[in-house]
Amino acid sequence: MSFTSINFLLFFGILIILYYALPRKIQWIVLLIASYMFYLFAGIQYLAFILFTTVTTYLVTVYMDNNLKAQSLYLKNHKADMSKENKKALKKAVKAQNRFWFILTIVANFGILFFCKACLVDPLHSITDSGVISFLSVGLPFGISFYMFQSMGYVIDVYRGKADAEHNFFKVALFVSFFPQLVQGPISKWDQLKESLFAPHAFDTRQVGFGLQRVLWGFFKKMVIADRIAVAIGTLKGSEYTGVSFFILTVFYAVQIYGDFTGGIDIAIGIGETLGITMPENFIRPFFSKNIAEYWRRWHISLNEWMKSYIFYPITVSGPMLKLAVKTRKSLGRFGMRIPVYIGSLLTWLGTGVWHGFNLHFILWGLINCVIIVISEELTPAYERFHERFAWSNSGGYNAFQIIRMFVLMNLIRATDLFNDVGDYFRRMGSLAWKFNFEVLWDGTLMNLGLTGTDYMILFAGIVLMFLVSFFSRDNISVRVKLQRIPRAARYAVFLALLIAVILFGSYGIDYNASNFIYNQF
Fold first, then answer.
1. How far apart (Å, rounded) are the C-alpha atoms in residues 281 and 179?
2. Most Cβ neighbours (<10 Å): which of 24, 218, 334, 393?
3. What residues contact residue 283 under an 8 Å CB cut-off, 6+ apart?
4. 302, 223, 129, 260: which is closest to 498 by C-alpha?
5. Over the stretch 284-335, which tens digit does the pLDDT of each residue have?
């Protein structure tokens, strides 16, 4: 059930009424039922996957928590008659037991994710069509990447002692299945979500209004901008579009994926806000970044934080990496000390690429990002000397140049998403160096991409509006808050105009269901 479907609007409207009409102490139960209803709309065949993750997450976290509590109680009761060696042996045994079940749970769940990514998604779909497991030829289970990462993050935090285990199975089930996050995130940590997810919430007109405003803004970005420009992107992927046409494709795709992804996140966070539930921000004005590293601190923040917390840092500070750093430091100096960081970065970006899919172009995407970020980090001292020597490098003009440079470079990297054939991607990239067909900008080519003059005007207006909203949010105060300061009639007129724009200019599919969100496939 897509966020932008009529069915979802009915579902969400009924949920709001029941959520605030029924006793507050059962609000989280209402959310659990609603989340499973939402999930079942995707297909009952996917239910086994999310239930397996939920059950294993609950059992292992409760087991580890009970083990540690039993250890503490035993040590307390036998404090006087246990030697230091016996206490140490007991702690070691408990840790070994927890580690065994922890590793088994992680391997089992990520093993399922690996299988789904490798076998249930094209181009390897034929593996399941052979007959033996053809009943699983259902495509990638809905939301599996998002709820799997969220659940395993919780398991890891409990194992590390950074989170308390929840002993109510149904609360764990809600944490895993909370429906707004299933479509494309954000990926929340247990400590980020638990307080507002299970707390009772009274109806707050201002809060509900803010939530609905953000949902409406998400609809606008998704349906008016992203879905409209998708038509041109499909045409520009044709092999005849090279040179400047390929560059136009990268810009159009940047607009589409930003409108689609941030629009979906706006809807998800807005739904949560309407229900009194706080989710982490996933985007902070990414296209105002000055370099790729900064961009990734602002784009899909929850995934990047997950990768850093559970892959990058554990690798770089692990025993083998620290020993390697000591050995290489003697022969390679500072460079040798950085080798664990390089290895951690490489594995993290490979993991991020594979998270998107078991395809060569996703792995290439991860490697390109990794190489650029590592080189940029190593050149940081040179950049600092450059800025110290040349005062103009800190001017507004140079800052604008850095933002544009980042935008162009990121567009070229992101274009790997569009071509399953890596060779085709490099051919298109190469065409930028030898095919200067600027005439496509005025010879009518743009009018043959499936968009009309009216479409271009709507897109232009929408992009300008997105830019202004992002620009005026630079002081960490949302535009919604700023709009509260203007007269009520003017504020309502703004939101009414946005609603009319979505109704009149939204791109609709069959049965008035907008196209799926891009990140659904991940």
1. 17
2. 218
3. 261, 262, 265, 298, 299, 300, 301
4. 223
5. 999 999 999 899 999 999 999 999 999 999 998 888 888 888 888 777 777 7
